[in-house]
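hey so i finaly got around to running the thing on Exportin-5 domain-containing protein from Toxocara canis. pasting the sequence first so u can double check i didnt mess up the copy paste, my clipboard has been acting weird all day
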Amino acid sequence: MLLRILSEVHSRLIARWEQLAQIEITEEPSLEQLFTEHMVCMLTRECVNLLRAVLNISDSSSSPEEKKDEPTCFITSQIGQDLSVVDGVVALSFFCLTCRDATSAIRIIPACRALVDIVKNMLNNGQCEEGVAVFMLVTSIQSLQVHGSDEVALGPLLSLVFHVYYSLRKGCNSLLRVLQQVPQCTQETLQSFDSRIIAMIANNELVVEKVRREIIKKLLRPLIALSVGEQHKRTVHLRQLPPLAKRVKPLVDEDFTALALIFNSD
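ok and heres what it spat out for the 3d tokens, dont ask me to read them lol
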């Protein structure tokens, strides 16, 4: 039953967002266009609330990524037991991550992190295919292309990409091939990044959140959407100015005849 609900909600969300993308937005959108966009965003946010409830993500937690210790319902405890249900929850959650609604994307991030941990355990037990991990990484990177210009969403999304690669790299070698498609990323840079992540995993290194974001931001910079200020930033061209001429001190003919009056003995 849960799988059928997830599939139906997923298909309806896809249809709604595709319909919204086909609407031509003029300089001053009509009330009907604004209402349609608002309703699609509200539907997506309600779907996010459903997923957070299913995965037991609480708004009252001290951290947005913190989960309760004990599941509150039977569905939550059984999600990791059925591969088809996991696939459905992953597909719907990561789709909400790429919808053009920053509020939905930010609120679904804790659910996506929880799903990464579930898939990690399933990969270690041989119960899940690498395609799920690849889908998670690709969709997380796509979210940077959609919401990278939002300063509030950029940081958590960078952390999510790092969490996906860090958690699933050991059990999925295909993640490295995904990053090989990043433009302007040399093979040396990619190998250095991958070796660093593998060393962190082997040493169980505790990485500060700021460092995680900087590592991913440096690697995926060509894919991150520019902020509004950077989009309209005007290129400044500085021309070479001629050097300033040195001021030459004029030569003055010194006259010492007046000194003769002082020392004149007459």
